[in-house]
Amino acid sequence: MNIGKLNWDDLKDIIDKNKTVKREEVRVSNGIGEDCAIVNYGEYECVISTDPVTGATENIGKIAVNINCNDIASCGVEPVGILVTILAPPTETLEDIRKIMQQIDKETQKLNVEIIGGHTEITDAVNKTIVSCTVIGKGKKNQGISTAGAKLNDDIIVTKKLCLEGTSILVNDYEERCKRILNDSEIKEAKEYIKSISVVKEGIIAGQENVHAMHDITEGGVLGALWEMAKASNVGFEIYKEVMPISDITRRVCEEFKIDPLRFISSGSMAIMTADGEELIKKLNENGIEAKIIGRITKEKGVIIENNKILEVDPPERDELFNI
């Protein structure tokens, strides 16, 4: 099998045939395009998400905290607690484990999220360290926003620059190769993209502004995120390639590795669907968050427009990171 996420049709088939129990407390259940479950507890709701980090070596603890807290923020609520599982091969040292936990502690301090449990194990079942986290968030009843809420003619907004996470991973893991195309200051800047991969701030702000749907842009890039959102919401989308917010550094890195930045892992950007994009962008800008309208929600199929050519967006395959 190919490395990366399962093919979406295969995954849907497995989920549909092996998920039979339904509970009335579960308002939203995880599924294709829906990264969080929302469980009703009366006056409050519990928002839950889980994800591993498998494509990075450097900053694995930092990335693990942020990608999971970002999922919670995509529901418009604040993350509260995190459970951490570390599976490390016998070649790792105790100091390696300490370093990962120090990264996790540092990130949870920034986000005011408590480490409430987990598991740490040395095992020959893996050949490099895997960190998997589960994050729990809390919101008022019916506050949590579903990925499946996008509406016809909504503006599609993305925050910050695309590919922050992916660019940082490549420059950290392939620094010598990247020195062919980037100078020392650009290498430093690219590595520091990792400092901006949290979307908790914009998620909480947008959650207070009556947006219809949000989806953090992770594995599969912006095209993967929008395809998942459209599938969950039973809508289409129309986006414009020339307006995508991609830094010059990222463009050059993607050219060097022959990868598509629109299908490249992009933690640090949130896709937001709302009826009044300009008003939300104004609110985000007031809070120091860059944001841009890249298109709109339509009735059918997802398309990207490039040089007046309309191209249909295919279901996402494995992230470009795994094609290197």
Structure commentary:
The protein is an alpha+beta fold and 324 residues long. It has 2 domains: 21-140, PurM-like, N-terminal domain (60s Ribosomal Protein L30, Chain: A, 2-Layer Sandwich); 147-323, PurM-like C-terminal domain (Phosphoribosyl-aminoimidazole Synthetase, Chain A, domain 2). It is built from 10 helices and 13 strands. The protein has helices at 8-17, 60-73, 94-111, 164-173, 175-178, 184-191, 200-207, 221-233, 248-257, 277-286, and strands at 26-28, 37-41, 44-53, 78-88, 114-122, 130-140, 155-159, 213-216, 236-240, 270-274, 291-298, 302-306, 309-312. It has a 7-stranded mixed sheet with strand order 8-10-7-11-9-12-13, sandwiched between helices. Strands 1-2-3-6-4-5 form a 6-stranded mixed sheet, with helices on one face. Helix 2 packs parallel to helix 3.
- In quaternary terms, these chains amount to single chain
Approximately how much beta-strand content do the residues carry? Answer: 25-35%
Count the E strands. 13
Helix content: 25-40%
Q: How large, in whole angstroms, is the Cα Rg?
A: 19 Å
CATH topology of the largest domain: Phosphoribosyl-aminoimidazole Synthetase, Chain A, domain 2
- Strand and helix order: HEEEHEHEEEHHHHEHEHEHEEE
| Helix/strand/pairing category | alpha+beta
